[in-house]
Amino acid sequence: MDNNARYLSAKKSYAELNIDTEKAIEKLLEIPVSIHCWQGDDVIGFDNDSALSGGIQTTGNYMGKARNKEELFADIKKALSLMPGKKRLNLHASYAILGDDAGKIDRDKYSIKHFKEWIDFAKEEGLDGIDFNPTFFAHPMVKDGLTLSSPDKTTREFWIEHGKRSMEIASELGKVFNKPCLVNIWIPDGYKDVPADRLSPRLRLKDSLDKILENYDKKWVIPAVESKVFGIGVESYTVGSNEFYQNYASQKGICCLLDNGHYHPTETVSDKIPSLLAFYDKIALHVTRSVRWDSDHVVIFEDELKEIAKEIVRNDATEKVMIGLDYFDASINRIYAWVTGQRSMQKALLYALLIPNGLLKEAQDKGDFTLLMHLNEKIKTLPLFDVWDEYLARLGLRDDFYKDVKDYEKTVLAKRN
Ligand code: RNT
Ligand code: ZN
Predict the structure, then answer these.
(1) What is this structure's pTM?
(2) How far apart are CA 175 and CA 173, in angstroms?
(3) Å from CA of 59 to ligand 2 middle
(4) Predicted confidence (pLDDT) per residue in 332-347, tens digit
(5) Could you tell me which residues come within 8 angstroms of residue 241 by beta carbon, excluding any fewer than 6 positions away?
(6) Which of 235, 285, 326 should be mutated for ligand 1, with most atoms under 8 A from CB?
(7) Which residue among the candidates 259, 386, 389, 390 is catalytic per the annotation?
(8) 50 pLDDT exceeds 90?
């Protein structure tokens, strides 16, 4: 059977469960996924020579890492060309293009002009907008592993300024694309060993955040705070814990960002999404894959990803949940990593869009758990791949993109050394 015949047969199978595959494809095209710029160069950035820090780590040394802005732009462009659907760009402040300001100004002085080339790039690529992250790591002003919660006033003030500048940059980015810009605040602050005082750092963080949020552009900026349980070298205590940020976000009317590598291993973000939807208008995600710890493995089409997608789709929350990717694997072709993660997210969303949610909910509400299990098992083997293939074909893409990546590796990446 050619693609189309397989699609028509799949369409029929889904129609028997009252699911319209055309509607699912249409809906999938509307859901933006924010693509992180940091997969291509192992989170190094452009603005200084500091090693990656803050308890996060890339492992592996695959050839062809992007070494400068030209290479990173080229690699993102290649990756985007293989990614179906609506895309935004997720930028870190450390990717500022400083030009003549290099060596003269620091992160407390960045402005929109240092991101102009990124804006042009995003426009050329037809992206839906840019999201922004202040970079509170890999920098000499991180003192004893601390930023916004530091007991040192000068350190705190530097990072508060960085936060404020980031909010201003985000406001400009929102205006340029006529779409609000998500600003995600993640700080590495914490202690390797048992602290003497767990409260004061949190009170200082609260005060620093209050200052960053004093006067931001509510129309174009959506601030978010990203909690974490621990990092490498920061095992005993994290200032920005889950409880801290959830309460903070709820009091301040801002957003929580859930990174699915940032919780205890038996907690799931899929279950947290509906809990937060009961209280918040918007939630942000960092979709990643943690293997035993926050390892930031490439996102693949696995069960928890499908559960996350189900919670977004069946709660009609595709406009409330802002999906962003956050992983960095240096052990395989980085472009392959980028595309696989984005496609897995899209595939999971399509999977969720093709589920007879009405029937499942009815079974649950009637207490017919036999039927619920029966349907839950049945949907696992419906012909998702045939709809996926059709979706890609309509966008001029194929499921197998391995060769495209390998060609680029031979012709472009192999020449970098
Ligand atoms: C770290 C957080 C954070 C970073 C990125 C680079 O554990 O997940 O979001 O990964 O900002
Ligand atoms: Zn994250």
Answers:
(1) 0.97
(2) 5
(3) 16
(4) 999 999 999 999 999 9
(5) 227, 228, 229
(6) 326
(7) 259
(8) no
